[in-house]
């Protein structure tokens, strides 16, 4: 198969020289774990003291990894990317909320993004995090099948009602919704809820998507068992496949509580697990739809190869590639130029509220071997190409 991901002209076609230089600076910083640690501490300290640092954050790391402070603010970025064939997934990236009013606000924001998606071909998906609609401790208790007291049961009923409202609204608007994966200790309850939503709303096609974090060694078995239930009950499976986002937190908690680490034993085992899930879903594509959320070139080539083998067109709506905004543009824009379905996750929200997301992005890039180096090498290659023009 032709290798397409080294074309840096396509990859950075939307970046000015100044934006390319900013990206170079950011990834150089992110590549240094000590700087990430110090920078994270200083940023949190400054925000707690309400020091005037939000403008600086906005001009640097925020604008590189986020689309804007609200959904309207994102539209300029959405339109620019779509002009090059790259769609957007508006991702309200406010994390760590604990109050009912905040969950209701997240619900209303999700409904608004569904409206945005319905109104724009450039935004083919809406998305939400389960913990955006309810407390993580409550998910954990439900997933562990512990008895809820009356107050907790009422609270859980409200979480279920929020899920139902979002999914019914997405169904009525015919908008596909991606439901993110989170920490293992809350995921069982979320899986049960999403599975119920799939059964209700995926009768004709995959409209409701769950997320499998394939750095978990149990996820392929879960996918296969879900498939058996879906066949019996007659619904389609929608699944976003990612490698995962909470590796260090998962390993630390497993060690502290004395249970088996839910994460694969090695990067290679994770890659193999991800690719096996891709292969399984493509084998059963007649009853599934896949959103391959990956920054890995080999996995992207695998999806392309399997599409050819299955005789699928490049723009088959059951197969999407996805990357995060600000990362792996060499994959996103080269796939789009070749005619594939591609969407960038476009985080947004108030600068202060999005900081936990941005800090997690920096920490993940630091811990994933080769990711930052790959970004830097491509940026340098494009800078050199432009100098020679």
Low-confidence stretches: none
CATH class: Alpha Beta
How many separate structural domains?
1
**Class based on secondary structure composition and strand pairing:** alpha/beta
Name the average pLDDT: 93
> Major β-sheet, in short?
8 strands, parallel
Strand content of the residues, in percent?
5-15%
What is the strand tally? 8
Structure annotation, total helices: 16
- How far apart the termini lie comes to 29 Å
* Rg calculated over all Cα atoms: 20 Å
As a percent range, the share of helical residues equals 55-70%
CATH fold-level assignment: TIM Barrel
Order of helices and strands: HHHHHEHEHHEHEHEHHEHEHEHH
The neighbouring-strand order within the major sheet is 1-8-7-6-5-4-3-2
**Which oligomeric state applies?**
single chain
- In CATH terms, what is the architecture? Alpha-Beta Barrel
Overall shape: it is: globular
List the helices and strands and how they pair.
Elements: H1 8-11, H2 17-30, H3 33-48, H4 54-65, H5 71-82, E1 87-92, H6 100-119, E2 125-128, H7 136-143, H8 150-173, E3 176-179, H9 184-201, E4 208-213, H10 219-233, E5 237-242, H11 247-257, H12 267-283, E6 288-293, H13 297-310, E7 319-324, H14 329-338, E8 342-348, H15 351-367, H16 371-388
Parallel strand pairs: 1-8, 2-3, 3-4, 4-5, 5-6, 6-7, 7-8
Helix pairs in contact: 2-16, 3-15, 4-15, 6-8, 7-9, 8-9, 10-12, 12-13
Please supply descriptive tags for the structure shown above.
single chain; 389 residues; alpha/beta; TIM Barrel; eight-stranded parallel sheet; 8 strands; 59% helix; globular
């Amino acid at each position: 198969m032709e290798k397409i991901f080294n074309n840096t002209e396509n990859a950075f076609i939307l970046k000015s020289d100044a934006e390319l230089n900013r990206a170079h600076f950011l990834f150089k910083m992110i590549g240094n774990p000590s700087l990430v640690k110090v920078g994270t501490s200083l940023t949190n300290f400054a925000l707690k003291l309400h020091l005037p640092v939000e403008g600086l954050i906005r001009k640097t790391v925020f604008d590189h990894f986020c689309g804007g402070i609200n959904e309207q603010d994102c539209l300029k970025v959405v339109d620019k990317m779509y002009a090059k064939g790259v769609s957007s997934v508006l991702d309200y990236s406010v994390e760590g909320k604990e109050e009912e009013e905040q969950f209701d606000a997240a619900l209303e924001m999700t409904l608004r993004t569904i409206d945005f998606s319905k109104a724009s071909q450039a935004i083919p998906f809406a998305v939400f995090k389960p913990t955006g609609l309810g407390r993580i401790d409550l998910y954990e208790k439900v997933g562990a099948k512990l008895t809820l007291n009356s107050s907790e049961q009422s609270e859980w009923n409200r979480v279920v009602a929020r899920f139902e409202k979002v999914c019914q609204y997405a169904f009525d608007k015919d908008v596909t919704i991606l439901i993110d994966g989170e920490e293992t200790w809350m995921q069982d309850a979320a899986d049960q809820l999403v599975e119920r939503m799939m059964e209700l709303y995926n009768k004709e096609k995959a409209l409701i998507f769950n997320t499998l974090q394939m750095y978990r060694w149990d996820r392929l078995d879960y996918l296969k068992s879900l498939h058996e239930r879906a066949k019996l009950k007659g619904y389609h499976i929608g699944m976003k496949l990612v490698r995962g986002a909470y590796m260090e937190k998962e390993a630390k908690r497993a060690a502290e509580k004395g249970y088996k680490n839910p994460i694969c034993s090695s990067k290679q085992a994770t890659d193999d697990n991800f690719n096996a899930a891709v292969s399984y879903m493509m084998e059963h594509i007649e009853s599934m739809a896949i959103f391959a959320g990956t920054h890995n070139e080999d996995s992207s080539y695998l999806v392309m190869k399997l599409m050819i083998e299955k005789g699928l067109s490049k723009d088959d709506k059951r197969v999407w590639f996805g990357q995060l905004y600000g990362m792996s543009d060499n994959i996103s824009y080269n796939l789009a130029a070749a005619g594939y379905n591609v969407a960038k996750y476009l985080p947004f929200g108030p600068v202060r509220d999005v900081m936990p997301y941005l800090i997690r992005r920096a920490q993940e890039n630091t811990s994933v071997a080769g990711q930052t180096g790959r970004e830097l090498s491509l940026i340098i290659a494009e800078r050199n190409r432009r100098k020679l023009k």
